[in-house]
Amino acid sequence: MNDVILAAFRHDAHKFTGESHDDARETFAGVSVNQVVPEGADRDAAALSRPQQIQERTVPTHNGRSRLSLLTGEPVCDHHEFSQGIVASDVRDLLTIDNAKIAHEQWLESDVAAGFNESVYHPYTSLKYHTLLVAALLDNYRNDTEFTDLQLIVDTTDEIEPFRTIFDGERFALHIDADSNGRPSARLGSRPWRSWAATWSRLTAHPLDTDHDKYDMTLDANLRRIRSWSTALQYLEDFAEWRPDR
Question: How far, in Å, are 61, 115, 185 from residue 68 at the CA level?
Fold first, then answer.
C-alpha cells in the first residue's frame, strides 16, 4: 500500500520540472517518479477537473507551469525560480517523503504544489489538488469501491482521513469515501466529470455560514459556479487566506 500511494503522490513530478509526459524522467532525487497510477485513478481525477483530449490553451496570454489565481487572475509564482533552486528544494522534500501517510499530510499543507497548474492548457487548475484527488480515488478503488458509490464528505478539521482527505482548512475538511456516517455529504455521480458545482450544491448540509457572513456568501456563490474540482478546492484555500477579517 505504501509504495502504491507514494507512486500517486509522485506521478506528476514532471509537471514540477517542466518535462513532457512522454519524455519524463523515471527518477528524481533518488526516488521513482512519473509512474502510471493503477486503477485509472489519475484518469478519473483529471476528468474531474478538465476536459479530456482537448489540448488547446484556454488562456491565450498564459503558457506555463504557474497556476493562475482565480482571485486575481495573476500567476501565483515565477517558475523560472525552479531552475535557480528557489523552489526546487521544497519540491524535492515533498517528493522524497518515504511514508505515504506523512506524504499525504504534507501535500495537504503544501504551498509549492499549489503554485503549479494541473495542465498548462488549463492554468486555473491546481497540481496540489489534482494529486490529492488521485490519491483519494486510488485508495477507494483499491478497497473495491466503485466511483458511483463515492461521496464528498464534510469533516471537522481534526478528522483527517489518511489518503482520502482532499482539503483541510481552518474550519472544515473534505474527504471522499463511500460511507458518510451521518456527516454532510453528496454523491459524486455516475461518472467522473467536472461536477464540483453540482456536487457542492447537493451537500446535505453546508459548512459555510451563508445566512450571516458576507464572505461566506460570496465564497459559496462562487463555488456553485466552478465546475473543475482542483480549481474549486484551490479556490477554497486561496479565499480563506485572502479573507480580510481573518
Answer: 11, 8, 29
